[in-house]
Amino acid sequence: MRRRGRRMMGVGAAVRVSERGAGSVLALALVGAVVAVTLGLVPVLAVFVESQRAANAADAAALAAADAVSGAVAGEPCALAATVAARNGARLTGCTGGDDGEATVAVVVEALVFEVTARARAGPAPAPRRRARARGTPWPRLSRRRSR
């Protein structure tokens, strides 16, 4: 037979009885909090992942359109950009290709109930600008004081 210990009389007895089973309630509350935070973070993380996919699709579509504009690849720039965007899970919403070899595209990716948009530009690197040459030295000239 197991002994339960002494019975307490008075104020201490009420406290001892009321704490019984509190660990289970705290564990359930902790599990509920973890589930609530997880359910709150899943949509946010899903939108973040889809925004990265949209950015990648826009970059790839812009590069494909720029290749077509420059003549490196045969085909119409916007049609090629739409194909590349679709292969990356996006839909092309805007495309411009200039005579200077530059292409700009905009794509949309659906994330849950949201639409995530991304834009990208591709083309030749800008010509390096010549910096104006500074006259004189870039630091002040220091000289020793002449004693008189």
The secondary-structure element order is HHHEEE
Give the percentage of residues in beta strands. Answer: 15-25%
Pick out the low-confidence regions. Answer: none
Oligomer: single chain
> How many beta-strand runs?
3
- Please summarize the sheet with the most strands: 3 strands, antiparallel
Count of helical regions: 3
- In whole angstroms, the N-to-C terminal distance is 111 Å
Shape: flat
The percent range for helix content is 40-55%
Derived structural class: alpha+beta
Strand order of the largest sheet: 1-2-3
Structure report:
This protein has helices spanning 11-18, 22-70, 77-87, and strands at residues 91-97, 103-111, 114-122. A hairpin with a 2-residue loop joins strand 2 (103-111) and strand 3. 46% of the residues lie in helices and 17% in strands. The chain is of the alpha+beta class and 148 residues long. It has a domain at 27-122.
What is the topological layout?
Elements: H1 11-18, H2 22-70, H3 77-87, E1 91-97, E2 103-111, E3 114-122
Antiparallel strand pairs: 1-2, 2-3
Outline:
With 148 residues, this protein is an alpha+beta fold.
Note the main attributes of this structure.
17% strand, 148 residues, 3 helices, alpha+beta, flat, 3-stranded antiparallel β-sheet
